[in-house]
């Protein structure tokens, strides 16, 4: 058992499974009461790791779930990291700090994203990209997955503005499926506990 304190946020990380230094990929899922969808997400993530031959781990950064998400995640083979400070950002900060992989791919544990289809993320990271972002507009958006106002106005407009001002080819600035080099993200000193 190890403990690590992230001093900027006064957030304590606790986890119990040891992993080797040669872990290439951590698939990170921030979680708050996702018992209904978490097992499927973890199964897809493990399926991807097994089918691709990538040495990796699945980490669930639990933000105080009261629906048994922690127990389910552990039973499904994920390493569970407890995050005592509430907030999506806090869950990601603690999860990234606890990750053992050289690369981290993060995504919500509500089945918004297909953790079985991460091949292109890993390929880009291996080529040297420090950040790889998903794009929900290039795939199918299931009914109810995104409110119409966000799908047709908010997200496209904000993504356009981002591309315009930052000269970036990112198609979906708000997609929660992102991959990155762990050390590069740690150097940013992220500290926002919320969204």
Number of strands: 8
The termini sit apart by: 29 Å
Radius of gyration, rounded? 16 Å
Give the fraction of residues assigned to helices. Answer: 25-40%
Order of helices and strands: EEEHEHEHEHEHEH
Strand order of the largest sheet: 5-4-3-6-8-7
Average pLDDT, rounded to a whole number, is 80
Task: Give the domain tally.
Answer: 2
At the first level of CATH, the class of the largest domain is Alpha Beta
CATH architecture of the largest domain: Alpha-Beta Complex
Within the CATH hierarchy, at the fold level, what is the topology of the largest domain?
Answer: Spore Coat Polysaccharide Biosynthesis Protein SpsA, Chain A
Main β-sheet description: 6 strands, mixed
Fraction of residues in β-strands? 15-25%
Uncertain parts = 1-19
**Shape assignment:** globular
Going by helix content, strand content and strand pairing, the class is: alpha/beta
**Helical run tally:** 6
What do we call the CATH homologous superfamily of the largest domain?
A: Spore Coat Polysaccharide Biosynthesis Protein SpsA, Chain A
Short description:
With 195 residues, the chain is α/β, with parallel strands linked by helices. The chain has helices at 38-52, 69-75, 88-98, 119-126, 148-166, 182-186, and strands at residues 2-6, 11-15, 25-31, 56-62, 79-82, 103-106, 131-133, 178-181.
What is the topology?
Elements: E1 2-6, E2 11-15, E3 25-31, H1 38-52, E4 56-62, H2 69-75, E5 79-82, H3 88-98, E6 103-106, H4 119-126, E7 131-133, H5 148-166, E8 178-181, H6 182-186
């Amino acid at each position: 058992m190890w403990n690590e304190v992230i001093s900027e946020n006064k957030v304590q990380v606790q986890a119990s499974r040891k992993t080797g230094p040669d872990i290439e990929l951590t698939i990170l899922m921030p979680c708050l009461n996702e018992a209904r969808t978490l097992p499927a997400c973890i199964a897809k993530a493990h399926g991807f790791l097994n089918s691709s031959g990538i040495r990796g781990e699945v980490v669930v950064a639990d933000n105080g779930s009261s629906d048994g998400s922690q127990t389910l995640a552990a039973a499904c083979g994920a390493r569970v990291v407890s995050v005592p400070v509430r907030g999506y950002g806090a869950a990601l900060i603690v999860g990234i700090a606890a990750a053992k992989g050289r690369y981290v791919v993060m995504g919500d544990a509500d089945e918004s994203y297909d953790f079985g289809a991460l091949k292109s993320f890993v390929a880009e990271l291996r080529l040297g990209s420090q950040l790889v972002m998903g794009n929900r507009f290039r795939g199918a958006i299931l009914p109810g997955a995104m409110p119409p106002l966000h799908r047709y106005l908010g997200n496209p407009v904000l993504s356009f503005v981002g591309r315009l001002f930052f000269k970036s080819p990112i198609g979906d600035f708000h997609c929660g499926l992102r991959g990155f080099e762990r050390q590069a993200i740690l150097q940013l000193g992220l500290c926002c506990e919320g969204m």
